[in-house]
Design goal:
The chain has 458 residues and is α+β, with helices and mostly antiparallel strands. The protein contains 17 helices and 18 strands. It folds into 3 domains: 132 residues, 3-Layer(bba) Sandwich (FAD/NAD(P)-binding domain); 135 residues, no CATH class; 139 residues, no CATH class. β1, α1 and β2 form a beta-alpha-beta unit. The longest helix is centred in the C-terminal third of the chain and has 21 residues. The relative contact order is 0.15. It holds the Pfam family Amino_oxidase.
Length: 458
């Protein structure tokens, strides 16, 4: 996305101001603008799009930062309906991934494809784990009923929404807010079967002992019933078109505009102030920024109840991801179908593995111990934009492909560097060595899925 740091004067009063230019902020601003509200969107970075933007290397390789696939983009899908209502019908095209397995889970003993349709998914699971048919049927029955009962047209926080969900899900509704791990225990699934049916927890960054069943069910339902899709042209087409909608309806998008404060007077919002002191007035502010920074820094604790502040302070971010972006001098369509791979190299509990190697458990290990365990057990999510969008010539040179391998890692600074707080560690030898070893591990996961691919890395 282009830099919109703005040269002309921005007017001072707006009907609504949106903070944060990721897809959530952009779509919010677009809907406000198309409904007659003069809307200003403020983004602190030099481009909008958040995880939907792309970056280029050596002017010939283009990588998507965060758009790997999107669910329910068919003709009557949720996202399609939203885009159509913004006047973007036919402006954004989506390509459907492999129907027989949009995701493929590979463990030491099994290769399980996740297809479209709950019955097809169940059949694949039973074929892989025939001795566990009873437990698998229980799991899919509960998870599918909860997934199909979710009505995205209403908030489940409302009494009507909750009631409707409970009626539609029936007896399965009692599981909705229980941890996924409790449901797995109830179904008495083996360690490897548990891994296969819960491996997607990395997509929402919360291990099964903490993630509610409704979260996992909603994610699976989105793909299994709605299809797994990829936007042709890459994730940037979403942000680009949303910006056009905002500006076409009298709104404005500004980059390099970091909000310092949300201005509050007499318990009412009346505007925002940027870091440089520039102020804009409004009666409506929507923050699509970090929740802690929004309430603790921008709004200010003096304007909020103490109980609410304690709750916000206790929020913890999920573990971050490390991404390895690879350029390959081969056409990956000759190596893989249009699927994503979950490469799991261990038969141990995946949840325990991620917990031990993540933010909570890594401090119990030395760096050498962590690396050794990661080489043996750390999973990876592997995908290729080139395979999903082969006609996009920006991804890679002719006959070449891009590939990404990613995994969850600890968030703490102490894990990544021995440099003093406040010092830049990008050139710190400890950090560079750790980064190199993690890169090797992520490439190793790819090699385990596609033996021989390593020799094609350029």
């Amino acid at each position: 996305m282009m830099d919109r740091s703005i040269s002309q004067q921005t007017k001072q009063h707006w009907d609504a101001i949106v903070i944060g230019g990721g897809i959530g902020g952009l779509s919010t601003a677009a809907f406000l603008a198309t409904n007659g509200h003069k809307t200003l969107l403020l983004e602190q970075y030099n481009v909008v799009g958040g995880c939907s933007h792309v970056f280029r290397r050596k002017r010939q390789w283009e990588f998507d930062v965060g758009i790997h696939y999107i669910g329910d983009c068919g003709e009557k899908g949720q996202l399609t309906t939203m885009l159509n209502s913004l006047g973007l019908k036919d402006r954004i095209q989506f390509s459907l991934m492999d129907a027989s397995g949009y995701d493929t889970v590979i463990t030491p003993n099994h290769k399980v494809k996740i297809p479209y349709g709950w019955d097809n998914y169940l059949n694949n699971l039973i074929q892989a784990f025939p001795q566990e048919e009873k437990g698998l049927r229980q799991f899919i029955d509960i998870i599918s009923r909860i997934g199909m009962a979710i009505d995205r047209s209403r908030t489940p926080a409302s009494l009507w929404g909750t009631t409707k969900f409970a009626v539609n899900a029936g007896s399965a509704s009692v599981w909705a807010m229980m941890p996924v791990s409790k449901l797995l225990d109830y179904c008495r699934l083996s360690t490897e079967a548990r891994t296969v049916v819960s491996v997607q927890f990395g997509q929402y960054g919360c291990i099964p002992s903490r993630a509610p069943v409704v979260l996992h069910a909603g994610l699976l339902q989105n793909y299994i019933s709605g299809g797994a899709w990829y936007p042709l042209g890459g994730g940037q087409v979403l942000a680009g078109n949303l910006v056009e909608v905002i500006e076409a309806h009298g709104g404005m998008v500004r980059t390099q505009a970091k909000v310092d404060r949300i201005l509050v007077q007499n318990n009412k919002v009346h505007g925002v102030r940027l870091e440089g002191g520039e102020e804009f007035t409004t009666s409506t502010v929507v923050s699509a920024a970090d929740i802690k920074k929004t309430y603790l820094n921008m709004v200010g604790v003096e304007h909020l109840p103490s109980g609410f502040i304690r709750k916000v302070k206790n929020y913890k971010m999920s573990d971050p991801f490390v991404n390895v972006f690879l350029g390959l001098n081969t056409d990956l369509r000759e190596w893989m179908p249009n699927t994503n791979y979950f490469s799991v190299p261990t038969t141990e509990s995946l949840e325990k593995t991620v917990a031990i190697l993540g933010s909570e458990g890594h401090s119990e290990l030395t760096t050498d111990q962590w690396i050794k365990r990661a080489r043996e057990t750390l999973p990876a999510f592997i995908h290729s934009s080139t395979v999903k969008d082969p006609d996009n010539k920006r991804h890679a040179p002719a006959g070449c492909s891009t590939l990404e391998s990613m995994t969850m890692v600890p968030a703490s600074r102490e894990f990544w560097t021995k440099a003093a707080q406040g010092q830049n560690y990008s050139k710190d030898n400890y950090y560079l060595d750790l980064k190199e070893q993690l890169t090797e591990i992520m490439i190793q996961r790819v090699e385990e899925v596609m033996p021989g691919i390593k020799q094609h890395i350029v």
